[in-house]
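=== RUN LOG ===
request id: a7f3
mode: sequence -> structure
chains: 1
length: 386
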Amino acid sequence: MTDKVIWLTDRSRTLQDWKCPRARYWGYHHEGRGVVPPDQGLELMLGSALHDGLAAIAMNWKEHGTAPIDMIAMTCGKSVYENLMKMAGGDEDGFGFAKEQSVLIEGMLRGFYKYAWPSLVAQYPKVIAIEQEMTFPLNEGVTFMAKPDLILATEDEDTWVYVEYKSTSSKSENWVNQWNTAVQIHSTIRAVEHTLGKAPAIVVVQGLYKGYQSYGKQSSPFCYAYYRQGTPPFSYPEFSYVFKPGFKRTPVWELDPASGGVAGLSGWIDGMPEQVLAEQFPQTPPLYIKPDLIDRFFAQRLLREVEISQALNVVTDPSMPDAMRLQFMDGFFPQKFDQCNPAGFGRPCQFRQLCHGGLEDPLSAGWTKREPHHTPEMEQFNAETA
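=== RESULT ===
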């Protein structure tokens, strides 16, 4: 028997609502299903390519006990390069960025398979589920959707672990510690238990450090080496994985074996010191589930999701005067102005133009309706438009 679904929610909606309720409205409810800006495609494309590669590693491991990492990494990198060049209209000025980002994705996948993956499957060799749709009913009509990256288990399948991948520009202690009470991560456990009949005992957040932008370049050893030209026979060219005085940052894809470099990205990563590799893949210690915390999360989400559902019935009523509609929007979807352009770390809100730029019809300005990423939501939209 399937659950009767009236209202769907998920982790992304929750995070957006916590950050700014008005952004939650724009991103998930405006025009019936939310709108996205024209420039959102880049980040989504890069994230999708990385997760596709990680899923392919797990799928091949489950079936064959190994993974064709050369094919997986190169295919994902090539896809990123071609998409970025297409976005740039084939302009040669876009070559450097396209190559850099494609090498970053390929490098992270190769590095992950070389360093992080072996330690994961050494402890949990059984692959239970890979990006499988899972749900948890909050009540008779409100359903929480989840798609956990990976569920692994011990050899006897007695202990399950939920592995969540997170690409990150930080690998600080604060980044690691934040997940201990990140209830939106832990809440996925309930969806796994409801769908598969067994709950993972622990959560592990596996980071993939992509570095940060420095002088217009991606600061990552997957993208750039450090090179010092030699003067034979007194000295010879040298390459380094970390900065050294007198060394110049050089694209990995331009390394020349004839000058002392390695053959391609594969060779560069094969020779990468373990300490350097380890720094690219921060991992939390095992996080144990806090049932009371999850109970409170779902109780509070149920109240808020019902409130949002009822509020939308009001603010989307075409007969409502504009002044009254704005009053209801301010009450149920208040703006968090400190999130419009956060000080310090954090990106400007992608919906600033809708709140402050006077853009009344985003669809006529290149914005598009949000595409659902969960199967239950896709099925619901298809049923409503049939």
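=== NOTES ===
The chain has a mean pLDDT of 89.
The first strand starts at residue 7 and ends at 10.
=== END ===
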